[in-house]
Structure formats: structure tokens, C-alpha cells
Amino acid sequence: MHFLIIGAVLFLGFASFQTPEDAADNTITISQDDINVLKANFTRTWQRQPTPGELDGLVEEKIREEIAYREALAMRLDLDDAYIRRRLRMKLELMLEDIVENMVPTEEELTEFLEQHPELFRQEEQISFSHVYLNGDNHRNSLDHDADQLLTQLNKAGADIDPEQFGDATMLPRTYPLSPLSVIGRQLGDMFTRKLSGMETGKWQGPLPSSYGYHLVLVHESIEGRAPELSEIRPIVEREFNARRRKEVKDTTYTKLRARYQIIVEQSSNS
């Protein structure tokens, strides 16, 4: 309680020693635009207009906030506050991002960006396939022989067979829909997708090694990877272009601002 009383006395005493310039700036004006914003925020939150009493409360809270803000600045409470410093940096960077958002890229800029960074937008090879699983432990000494026999049997039966009827039991799906190689690789491994890529369609082939064992594979459909045209992926290119430009604007602004300061980094000889 004593600390609270002392703090209040110091606060009031500080306010009483304001300079004439400070005292002249003691007017707080709540404009009609401010009131409209308060109404809009209330309506968006509560899905109805505020009552006259509620509006008076909102205005009073706005005044309370402004008084607290001004007094805190006058007492220099914003200095050496890590949270406030981070918030101010964030606001500055958000302002720069808003500037970039208003800079709509031209078709020429997007086309040039696509040509310079084709690896960001290249569409992967996609493959759909069925497979018959061979557990390596079950065919430790006869994998090649067993695979050859099963391949002959599968190709005689044709492409319309049920792969569940052949090979060893597995929890893996026996048929994979058309999927990018990276998606297939996340489940079956890169070694499997390297062998799978470019395989002939409509014919049982293998065995292909995977993270689980070995597989005899029938490719149903294969779509080659390609570099798409801008018209096909314009929103994606524009999003990536704007992300790069936001970073460039931030970095350029920081470099220019940094050049205005003399930077001294004091380090001890032990650091």
C-alpha cells in the first residue's frame, strides 16, 4: 500500500511540473470519425449497433486510453521496453509491406520472374500405379526367382487384376491415384520414385526397392513434369514475386537507414 501511495504521489508530482508547451497540448478531441470507428468495431464484434449508453462507455474508454498513452509518453515509459521496441519494429515492417501490397506487378515483371526462377514453379512428374508387395524377409534367398515368376503370372493375367490377390500382405494401399513423385516418395522413398519415374505404362515391371521391401509395379498413367505458362499459375507466381519483393524492400530500407548511423559494438577481450 505504501508503494502505491508513493507511486501516485510521484505520478501527480510529475504531471504538475509540465512545461507550458506540454500543458498547451492537453486537449483531447474525439471526432465524429473516431465515433464512427468505435460504432463499426462494436457492430462487427456484437452484430448489432451499440446503445447510447454503450456508445458513451466506448467514448469514455477511448478518452481513458488517450490520457494513459500521453501520460506514459510524458513519463518516458516507452524507453527501454523490449515489448514496445518489438511492436514498433513490427509496425515499421508492416508499413513497408503495405507499400509493397499496393505495388501491383506487371505482366512483364511476372513473366521475367517466372523465367528467372523456373525451379520454383515446375510441375512434377505425376504417376498413378498399382503394386504387388514382396517382403524381403520372406524371399531372402529367392527374390529374383520369385519376382520373375510372379511377373510372368501378372502379365499373363493382364492389367485388370486385383493386386490384393498376389504377393505378401502389407498395410500399404495397393493402388495409388495420380500423384506427384514427391508425394509418393514421402511414403515409399526416393529410391522407389527414381526407379518409378519414366517407367512404361500398362505392363507389370520390377522389382523396385522401397522403404518397406520390394514391389512389382504396374503404371496406369504418367504425366511428365513441365514448366507451366504464366497464365496457368499467375496467382502463385504473383504471391511468390510479392514475397520476394517484400523482403527486398525491407532489406534495402534497412541498409539505407543503417548507413545513417554510426554503429559501435563493444566487446570484451574474452568474448
Topology:
Blueprint: H1 2-16, H2 20-23, H3 32-46, H4 52-74, H5 82-101, H6 107-116, E1 126-134, H7 143-157, E2 175-180, H8 181-188, H9 190-196, E3 204-209, E4 214-223, H10 230-258
Antiparallel strand pairs: 1-2, 1-4, 3-4
Please give a structural write-up:
The protein is of the alpha+beta class and 271 residues long. It has ten helices and four strands; from the N terminus they run ααααααβαβααββα. A four-stranded antiparallel sheet has the order 2-1-4-3. α8 (181-188) crosses α9. The longest helix is centred in the C-terminal third of the chain and has 29 residues, at 230-258. 11% of the residues are buried. The model is unreliable at 3-12 (pLDDT under 50).
Q: What's the CATH architecture name of the largest domain?
A: Roll
Quickly count the domains: 3
Q: SSE string, helix = H, strand = E?
A: HHHHHHEHEHHEEH
Structural class: alpha+beta
Placed side by side, the strands forming the largest sheet appear as 2-1-4-3
Q: What is the level 1 CATH name of the largest domain?
A: Alpha Beta
Helix share, percent: 40-55%
Anisotropy-based shape: elongated
The pLDDT mean sits at 85
Largest sheet: 4 strands, antiparallel
Strand content: 5-15%
Poorly predicted parts? 3-12
The total count of helices amounts to 10
Distance between the termini: 45 Å
Q: Tell me the total number of β-strands.
A: 4
